[in-house]
Amino acid sequence: MKGTLAVTGNAEADELVNKNPLALLLAMLLDQQIPMEWAFIGPYRLQERMGGTLDAAVIAAADPEAFVALVKGPPALHRFPGSMGKRIHDLCLYLVEHHGGRAEDVWSGVATGEELRARLRALPGFGDEKSRIFVALLAKRLSIAPAGWQEAAAPFGDDVPRSVADIHDGESLAKVREWKKARKAAGQTKHD
């Protein structure tokens, strides 16, 4: 896997989410109620805390309370480290039980964007919007674009810089931030 996502301002953290499927899934899971940069650097920090390894089977086998304590830090990996630590653990358990611990199995071999979105929706912590954004992210930043991905990702499959799927450098990050700020000022959402 090799992507073009550049969100964190940390080359090593960006490289991790561009090359490691689990890191990418975890970053997307963390991407709520915190800045995108913080969410997408989270897997890098977690890997450091785990001794340089980021593996779904290792996380799934960990004692849930000990793992949550690891996420809590300090510093915490998320604004809500307790609940997000549990979600990370739950996601890794799901990956082990349903995908042999392989995050990339979630998108490998899918025939359509709808099938991909359905697989993502089945993941703990992935609702409809997060799943749509992730479909767009896979297509736009990693060239994993099954038939009908744009419809499955709608409205995030268009060319409007509205989500992390549209970020590949500092300039595109600024455009996404500007777009979100303008929407918020107008009382609109990413969907409008």
Summarize the structure.
The chain is an all-alpha fold and 192 residues long.
Structure in words:
The chain has 192 residues and is an all-alpha fold. The protein has 2 domains: 1-106, Endonuclease III, domain 1 (Orthogonal Bundle), CATH 1.10.340; 112-192, no CATH class. Helices cover 58% and strands 0% of the residues. The longest helix is centred in the middle third of the chain and has 19 residues, at 81-99. The protein is globular and about 45 Å long.
Give keywords.
single chain; 192 residues; mainly alpha; Endonuclease III, domain 1
> What integer value in Å does the Rg equal?
16 Å
Q: Specify the CATH homologous superfamily of the largest domain.
A: Hypothetical protein, domain 2
Oligomer: single chain
What proportion strand? under 5%
- Please identify the structural class as seen in this structure: mainly alpha
Please report the distance between the alpha carbons of the first and last residues: 32 Å
Task: Write down how many β-strands occur, each being a DSSP E stretch of 2 or more residues.
Answer: 0
Uncertain runs are none
